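Hi V.,

You were right to ask for the full record rather than a summary. Here it is.
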Amino acid sequence: MLSVLFMLLACIFLSYILSEFSKKIGVPSVVGYILAGIILGISPIKTFVFNHSGLDILYALATLGMIFLFYYIGIKTTIVSIKKNIKQSFLISLFNTSIPLVLGFIVMTLFLGYKAEVGIIVGLCLSMGSQSISVNVLEELKLIKTKIGSLLITTGAIDDIIELVLATIFLTYIDSYASQTGLIDLVFQIALFTLIVYLFKIVIIPYILEQPDNKKSKVSRFTSAIIIMLLMAVLAENFAIGAVIGVLIAGILVGNTIRNDKKIPVSEKEDIAKSMHTIAFGLFIPLFFIWVGLNIQLEAITGNPLLAIILTLIATIGTVGGTMIAVLLNKETLKQGWLLGWGLNAKGDIELVIASIALSLGVINHAIFSAITITALITTIISPIMFKHALKSSKYKSKILTSQKKNNSQ
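Predicted structure:
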C-alpha cells in the first residue's frame, strides 16, 4: 500500500511542479504533465518509483482520466452547437484525415521503398489525432464554450468515428483473428448502439438523474452521473464502439438533460460539471498524460531521427494543411484554418496502439515504430504551444472572446 501511495505522490507532485512551471513560461500545462511522465520513465527513476502492480494501478487511473475527460467534454457540449458545426466539422475531418494518410502511404512506398502494408499502417497512424490534448488546452484557456471550442470538439468527435472505422479495417486486414468484428458486424453494432443511445436519451438518463430529488442530495446526483458514465462506457466497449466515444455521447446527453429538465433544481444545473471538472483535472487527467509520457522511450529518439523527422512533417503538414484547405472551402480565413489545424494536430493514443499491434505482428520494424513514437511525442508537445501562439496572434481571438461573453451571459 505504501508503494502505491508513494507512486501517486511522486506522479502528482512532479506533474504539479512542471505544469505550474509550464504555465509560467507560457506553455500549456499538458506539456508539463507529459514531461513528468517522460522523467518518471527514465530507467533508474522508474525502477525506484514503480513496481509491477503500481504500473497496473497507474494504467487503470490513466484510463479513468481519459474517460472523465471526454465525459466532461460531453457535459459542456450542447446539441445545438453540434448541429451548428456538423457540416464544417465533417469537411475538416475528411481533409485532415485523408491527406496525411495518403501522404504517409506515398512517401513510405514510392520514396522510401517499403511494402504497401507498411505504407498503409504508417498513413493510418499519421492521420489519427489525440483530442485529449486539444481539449485539455481548451479547458485551460477557458474556451470550451466558445465557437472555436465547439468546432474543435465536434471535429474531434467525428475524427474519432473515422479513426474507429479505419482501425477496424486495419485490424481486419493485417490479422483476421486479431479482431472478431468484421465491417458488416460493426455497422450492425453501431446501429444497435444508436438505438440504445436513443433509449438512454428519452428514458434512462432522465430517470436516473431525477431520482435524487427526493433526497435533496447533490452527492447522489453526482453518483448518478458517474453511473451513467460507466454504464455507457461498458456498453460502448461491448459494441466495439470504444469507451471514449460512449462517454462523450453520455456526457452530451447528461449535459442537455440537466439543462432542460425542469424537475432538476436550478441550483444543481452546473454542480455535476463543476464536480466532474474538479476530480478530473485535479487527479485523473494529469495521471493520464503522465502515463502517455511514461510510455515514450527516450532511447527511440536516437533510433532513426531522419525517418522520425519525415513522419512528423507529413503528420503536421497533412493535418494543419488539410484543415486549412477545408476551412477555405468553407469560405473562412486562412488564419482560422491555421488555428484549428494546430488544435487538431497532436497525435497519440490510437496511433500508438495501432503501431504497437503492427510491431507485435511483424508488419513494421522497431525503427518505424520508434519513428511513429517520436512523431507522437513531438506533435503532442508543439501542437498546444502553436495553438496558443496562433490564438494570441489571430484576429479570430476577438470573435472567440465575444462568443465566450455571450455564452457566459446566457
